[in-house]
Amino acid sequence: MYITPCTTPAMFEATINSCNQPRLVSVKFLLSLRDKAVHSLVSKQNILTKPGRRIKKLLSTETMNSTASAASVDHSISKLEDEPYLQALTISTLFSFPMILKAAVELDVLGIISRAGSAGVSAGDIASHIPTKDPDASRRVDRMLCLLAVNSILTCSLSENDERGVQRIYRLSPTGRYFVQQGDEGSAASMLALNAHPITMEVWSHAKDTILGGGNEFKKVHKKSAFHYTNIDPTYNQIFNQAMADLTTKVMNQVLQIYGGFERLGSLVDVAGGTGKCLAVITSKYPPIKGINFDVPHVVATAPFYPGIKHVGGDMFASVPKGEAIMIKDALHNWDDEHCIKVLKNCYESLPEKGKAIIINVLMPKAPDSTLASRYITQLDATMLIQLGSHERTQKQFEALCMASGFSEFWVADHLAYSVWAIMEFRK
Ligand SMILES: C[S@@+](CC[C@H](N)C(=O)[O-])C[C@H]1O[C@@H](n2cnc3c(N)ncnc32)[C@H](O)[C@@H]1O
């Protein structure tokens, strides 16, 4: 609410007590406040944190910008304040972000915002489209949206309207679009659903034990490893497979722009291929390829039909189907070296003379840096450590796996997909 006509502290108090909207008041008026009682009221209402503290016009930023004349407390760090402490506090409450984002995805809040397009929506508009009749829900939705805007999922602008006064209007950011269910385009919402699922979260709470003792924490907590657990919990199986299929869609579309090694292949086996999405992306570009999607029986049993692709159930540690080339995408990082070498030796056996195994996997940088890619890879490596007792690998480590499983030549493409995924060939 934008309060301009208050000219006395009493008038200000009456107005502020009657308003439920965000409290935005004119700079001029706040600067004119002298009354101590009003200062304490203002403090309680979260407008000013201390009397006389500097206030400034809300500046346009990437995530928040103002279309109405408005004022706010200056939240920039002054020399007297301790930025590392504020950063530590922010980290200590970081958890709220993925949990609120998960709730927004589950309530289709991002879908509602997406469908509103460039016009944007207010919290009130959204509250009228979610399953609640509680008149206070819009205020809670607004708080949820604020957190998402601060974390670059949404943009927020202020809009002034005669009937409703000043409102926050939200739109999806380019990152936020990836949390809307997008059919075939590769949503990240399904990966969030997997990572924030209670079954997965429970394992994280034992991270300290894994650091101290190693091993497969998922198995210790749930009595079965993740890939066996998916066999007894069809819902978790579906969530896991959807997360992988969505990720694979995006990654493989970029791999196909970088790498031409699938061209002219007559057949291709995808070992640990999930529900076949990876082969579906490849064969839609190269229709002559006959694809064999190989995974455990309870995963291929749920795989959809794709033209030119045969789903085969089995155990890659026992044997893998024969093909002109064999690929393994995002599966070697689920296993220790001993298991990887076993699978790779089986691939070697099933390949023709001069055949190749195409390995697509996240590549661990030699040293962590501050790039987004480095942050994602180290977060994923931590996920492998805690959930599966496995790890991401450097190029040198992949080369060592290649040689240890009998292949004679290691090759890696110059470019990484999304600065993260390497495309490697282990040649016979
Ligand atoms: C991280 S997912 C990768 C899926 C797919 N390659 C992709 O990138 O979308 C690992 C896959 O390995 C499969 N897997 C695990 N153990 C297996 C085994 N013994 N034999 C065959 N597949 C297995 C899982 O079922 C799962 O689909």
UniProtKB/TrEMBL annotation:
<keyword id="KW-0489">Methyltransferase</keyword>
<dbReference type="GO" id="GO:0032259">
    <property type="term" value="P:methylation"/>
</dbReference>
<keyword id="KW-0949">S-adenosyl-L-methionine</keyword>
<dbReference type="InterPro" id="IPR001077">
    <property type="entry name" value="COMT_C"/>
</dbReference>
<dbReference type="Pfam" id="PF00891">
    <property type="entry name" value="Methyltransf_2"/>
</dbReference>
<dbReference type="InterPro" id="IPR012967">
    <property type="entry name" value="COMT_dimerisation"/>
</dbReference>
<keyword id="KW-0808">Transferase</keyword>
<feature type="domain" description="O-methyltransferase C-terminal">
    <location>
        <begin position="204"/>
        <end position="408"/>
    </location>
</feature>
<dbReference type="InterPro" id="IPR036390">
    <property type="entry name" value="WH_DNA-bd_sf"/>
</dbReference>
<feature type="domain" description="O-methyltransferase dimerisation">
    <location>
        <begin position="93"/>
        <end position="181"/>
    </location>
</feature>
<dbReference type="InterPro" id="IPR029063">
    <property type="entry name" value="SAM-dependent_MTases_sf"/>
</dbReference>
<dbReference type="InterPro" id="IPR036388">
    <property type="entry name" value="WH-like_DNA-bd_sf"/>
</dbReference>
<dbReference type="GO" id="GO:0008171">
    <property type="term" value="F:O-methyltransferase activity"/>
</dbReference>
<dbReference type="GO" id="GO:0046983">
    <property type="term" value="F:protein dimerization activity"/>
</dbReference>
<dbReference type="InterPro" id="IPR016461">
    <property type="entry name" value="COMT-like"/>
</dbReference>
<protein>
    <submittedName>
        <fullName>Caffeic acid 3-O-methyltransferase-like</fullName>
    </submittedName>
</protein>
<dbReference type="Pfam" id="PF08100">
    <property type="entry name" value="Dimerisation"/>
</dbReference>
